[in-house]
Amino acid sequence: TGGGKEDADDADATAERPDVNGIFERLRSETPDDADDIDTVTDAVDGTSDGEAESTAFLRRDEALVPLIVSGARKLKRVLADEQNGVLDLLRRNEPVTELAGVVPEIDRHVESYVEALADDLLDAAVAGAGEIGRNDTKTLRTSLRRGGALERAQGVLADDLVVPLRQRLERAIADGAGDNDDITKRVRAVYREWKTQHIDDQLDDAFRFAHGGGLSVGVKAGTPLTWTIDPSQPSCPDCEDNSLAGAVPAGDAFPTGHLGAPAHPGCRCLTLPDDQ
Fold this sequence. Notes:
This protein has nine helices and three strands. It is mainly α.
């Protein structure tokens, strides 16, 4: 079929990404292929080789999320590659493509394919969050986390920050191509290349931190005093400082910003922890 070499070039591009700061981005750029490598880079998160440094909730979260983010990035890049190939096949037909509905499914089905690809990894992140308040990983816990909405905010990140902007860019590419499928094809390739090499990495950190925080919030017993705890390795925002200054808040009650638990927003690295931790 036509475009085979270009498709292969696009597939190769999935391994590329911009040089950005942060431990997760660095780890993904290395993308370990086996458990030993993952152990090695996980040690890099806490700066130890044999667990010599004191563990903290933030280090434990990072250790739990690193391999899940690596795995999730691979899965989403496969989803994007498959989706791109389907779009390009449609563009190779004789009929001019003039609207988004001609190449991708409607929004709910589109989002669902991304959420399903990460379902197991996001749930593992939520279980890790619940583990921070002493909950053991059981089938009952996993069911309660799913039913309790622990993954809702993480799924919202995938929908609002990954899929919706992708659809907008594809729609613009189709409009700018004005029915010229060859021109649209070039534009579409550029969009998918950008998403595979940049946007997945930009959004997965937030999605997994939201899943981890959701697991902690849903898993904790109602009424347990929780404090909004700022990651000491990162700068804080005014909202998080306000929540931190509020002191202990019973689980189930809102902090000053209206959030029931951390993270407060994309990029937030805070945790809501039992007051005695």
